[in-house]
Amino acid sequence: MAFEGLADRLQSTIKKITGKGKVSEQDVKEMTREVRLALLEADVNFKVVKDLIKRIKERAVGQEVMESLTPGQQVIKVVKEELTDLMGGEQSKIAVADRAPTVIMMVGLQGAGKTTTTGKLANLLRKKHNRSPLLVACDVYRPAAIQQLETLGTQLNMPVFSMGTEANPVDIATKAIEKAKEEHNDYVIIDTAGRLHIDNELMDELQNIKSSVKPDEIFLVVDSMTGQDAVNVAESFNEQLDISGVVLTKLDGDTRGGAALSIKAVTDKPIKFAGMGEKLDQLEAFHPERMASRILGMGDVLSLIEKAQTNVDEKQAKELEEKMRTASFTFDDFLEQMGQVKKMGPLEDILSMIPGAGKMKGLKNAQIDESQLTSVEAIIQSMTKKERQDPDIMNASRKKRIAKGSGTSVSQVNRLLKQFGEMKKMMKQMTNMQKGKKGKGMKFPFM
Amino acid sequence: MGFMDKLKNKFKQNDKEEVSTKYKEGMAKTRNSFSGKINDLIARYRKVDEDFFEELEEVLISADVGVTTVMDLIDELKMEVKRQNIKDTKEVKEVISEKLVEIYYGDDDEEMEELNIQENNLTVILVVGVNGVGKTTSIGKMAHKLKEEGKKVVLAAGDTFRAGAIEQLEVWGERAEVDVIKQSAGSDPAAVIFDGIKAAKSRDADVLLCDTAGRLQNKVNLMNELSKVKRVIEKEIPGAPHEVLLVLDATTGQNAMSQAKTFSEATDVSGIVLTKLDGTAKGGIVLAIRNELNIPVKFVGLGEQVTDLQAFNAHAFVYGLFADLLEESDE
């Protein structure tokens, strides 16, 4: 299939661009074309893709990319960020009503997996939140839909409220709430019949159920394999019912799941859960950032992005080197570097990025105590601007103030100052070392 | 114009006014939005240039036709436009529909949409697909249809996994007034199908429709289970199953291709039932599937009623998609 070659295609395009050292608008165009194909192959709606590509172009053609050492990879990073932004953060909270029972309504097209998800959600509520849900069979149309929910109820050992296929779904829902109050069920999950978003009669029925039971949550259940039509479905259900969240089903399949992006883009409602299997405990919190990787084509592309990330900092590392050479390295630079470190994770990475540092003996297997980073950060942040630029003006009363402000001791402040001084000296040596002289060994203050 | 006439005549020859009405009604949403878009496009662009092709690409992609198919089509169109020296978008209209229909038919025998029904022996039809596409419902509708045609039909409740699946098939059995062979939930599907074959033989049935549990195509053990079911059928009746129908949801996007490929590997799919075509989804992926895997669509589901399953008629289907375009071209 076309998308199997995606990572390769992207990679060769990246290589082409990387080779030039500088990226032109034409290069970005080429990159975004590949990305566009990838997104479309993944079933992201073409309108959503269009907007996304436009934003990516705007961001990528800017300086950020032009100056980067590996612009091709930078573009991919921008893509990943845009996708992750669009998907939003993880949100798997379920509403709790002020007065029990909390009412949840499940809606969606035929065959999306509403009934199964109803069972899974009930199971999750009991297991993780210690609730006792009542399941309500409002699908009076599909043959054996009620039996299906009843069977799930038996499997879960949970009560199911039904009134047969002759009753009106609105009545069933209303009576179910009364029943839940009597039986002290704190959650009511209403399973509704699957329907087309353009079926006015049945959409009215949902609105009637909604206005009579006033649900705290309305979950739109969507098959993750849905194609371009996901936009129409989600938009329509959201407009008519003002859904509160989305459950994406069958995500254990091999679909790329671009529908997730489309749904989020048109409804701006969180995707809360994902169905990950046929068993009743296979409902998981939805992870937006993982979805972004999946839509892009996973594995290879992800590692590319990680590579891109380290490369982004090469530019800053170069600046750092420049500062070292001119010995104008200040506590501000230091703090900035620490911010970088935190962003990147392992401290060794940034050290290895400082030219020459990798060759130094003591540094090779350096183990860094990350917890000390915090106090070092606090000490620097407690310094005045002037103190950061010129640590030489430090006296006893300044040190005392800094120690107080950072919640450390004067001796800790002293240690940092001393190490910082040594480090600056070291930097000079390092620049010399690069010219062929032998260095002594270097220690960062937080090592 | 020759092509259009041919298509129209062919359609009229078939003389299935009822069918065409059904298609027209069921696909009204689909058709309106699709050819509406193409007409929009042609009205907006006077000149055939890169922008025009880009927009056309989007129109086709929005119908879930699939990126690869669309790209190929666009390339071909570009060549055709160059060859015929077409500059006006109105002229390109005919070329577009011609090419799209070509993908559908290919060089194949156009009659391959017919079900392979045995004259004097039992015909076994195995129905497969992912979860929630409408397998059981399609079987119910098929049973009704075959019975109307005077066939004696038996259903085998091979979905022993999903809660309520057996009951669901039983309801359809009652509606269509045909027998349903079942075992209890959780039993071996291959055993149920085996029973079904025995029962169908002893009852002298014409057609046995075998339901199976929905399964995602990347679940290897479940796909193996399906292969086993097929082997059981092969062993009992040489040459069977006579049809393996893959049920596809028209709402499904590009994953339908993966479904078609993997289910074919496991069970040698002979035809597709395209369901839920009465919504706004266009099911354009069947174009790509027919083109790439040579699997024809045999039935389309156009609604929830027992009569809402139509034998697939490529001409009617294409006519439904392009009706507006064709009618306008006639003026």
Which helices and strands occur, and which strands form pairs?
The complex is a heterodimer of chains A (447) and B (331).
Chain A: H1 6-18, H2 25-41, H3 46-60, H4 63-67, H5 71-87, E1 102-108, H6 114-129, E2 133-137, H7 145-156, E3 160-161, H8 169-183, E4 187-191, H9 200-213, E5 217-223, H10 230-241, E6 245-249, H11 259-267, E7 271-275, E8 283-285, H12 288-296, H13 299-325, H14 331-344, H15 347-353, H16 370-381, H17 385-389, H18 396-406, H19 410-434
Parallel strand pairs in A: 1-4, 1-5, 2-3, 2-4, 5-6, 6-7
Antiparallel strand pairs in A: 7-8
Helix pairs in contact in A: 1-2, 2-3, 2-5, 3-5, 5-12, 5-13, 6-7, 8-9, 10-11, 14-16, 16-18, 18-19
Chain B: H1 2-14, H2 17-26, H3 28-44, H4 50-61, H5 67-83, H6 89-105, E1 123-128, H7 135-148, E2 153-158, H8 165-176, E3 179-181, H9 189-202, E4 207-212, H10 220-236, E5 243-249, H11 255-267, E6 271-275, H12 285-293, E7 297-301, E8 309-311, H13 314-330
Parallel strand pairs in B: 1-4, 1-5, 2-3, 2-4, 5-6, 6-7
Antiparallel strand pairs in B: 7-8
Helix pairs in contact in B: 1-13, 2-3, 3-4, 3-13, 4-5, 5-6, 6-12, 6-13, 7-8, 9-10, 11-12
